[in-house]
Amino acid sequence: MMGKPVITGTRITVELILEKLAAGETIGQILEAHPQLTREAVLAALVFARDALRADVVYPLG
């Protein structure tokens, strides 16, 4: 994971959660595939991503 944010107590990255949701998976499908997760943990990953994007950091594209 090399410093990537993960769901507490797992090795599942926030990035993986976002990729699965972007691919059209539902939270229910993610929970079925990863039974160690909770709905609250998936929602916390979304809040983390939102807050990270709100930070005053500019990431150059390309």
Low-confidence runs:
none
> How many distinct helices?
3
If you average the pLDDT, what whole number results?
92
Describe the sheet with the most strands: none
Our Rg estimate from Cα atoms comes to 12 Å
Helix content: 40-55%
Question: What is the succession of H and E elements?
Answer: HHH
Distance between the termini: 22 Å
Structural class by helix and strand composition = mainly alpha
Globally, the shape reads globular
Q: DSSP strand (E) fraction?
A: under 5%
List how many beta strands DSSP finds: 0
Pfam families: DUF433
InterPro entries: DUF433 (IPR007367), Homeodomain-like_sf (IPR009057), WH-like_DNA-bd_sf (IPR036388)
Quick overview:
The chain has 62 residues and is an all-alpha fold. It is built from 3 helices and no strands.
Question: What tags apply to this protein structure?
Answer:
62 residues; mainly alpha; DUF433
Q: Can you walk me through this structure?
A:
The chain is mainly alpha-helical and 62 residues long. The chain has a domain at 14-54. Helix content is 52%, strand content 0%. It is built from three helices and no strands. The chain has helices at residues 14-22, 27-33, 39-54. The chain starts with 13 loop residues before the first helix and ends in an 8-residue tail after the last helix.
